[in-house]
Design goal:
It is a single chain. 5% of the residues are buried. Helix 2 packs antiparallel against helix 3. The protein is mainly α. The chain contains three helices and no strands. It starts with a helix and ends with a helix. It has a domain of 47 residues.
């Protein structure tokens, strides 16, 4: 008769241990999965990053174009330094549009 209450008590005590053992055993698997998630880039993230980079490149090209246009206008007025600057800016725009 004493065995039944003892078995019931043991079952209750061991249920907590089983849960703990399960947590300890599955923790490395969960951690490895999380590392894999952190170290890989989803297609959605890659598309966002590519779009962001394209917008930044367009902004840089726009800024360089405005600078070149101002330098070209000053060059037309006879400023030789601005003629050289417009040429340099033109090359920078070409390089930026080529993706370098």
């Amino acid at each position: 008769m004493r065995a039944i209450p003892l078995a019931a008590l043991a079952a209750l005590l061991l249920s907590g241990c089983v849960g703990t053992v399960k947590s300890v055993v599955t923790a490395p698997v969960k951690a490895a999965g999380q590392v894999a998630d952190w170290s890989t880039t989803s297609q959605d993230e890659a598309d966002r990053n590519r779009g962001r980079e394209m917008r930044k490149r367009q902004e840089r090209v726009g800024k360089l174009t405005r600078q070149r246009d101002k330098a070209t206008e000053k060059c037309r007025r006879g400023d030789a330094d601005q003629c050289r600057r417009a040429e340099v800016l033109d090359h920078e725009i070409e390089a930026e549009m080529a993706g370098t």
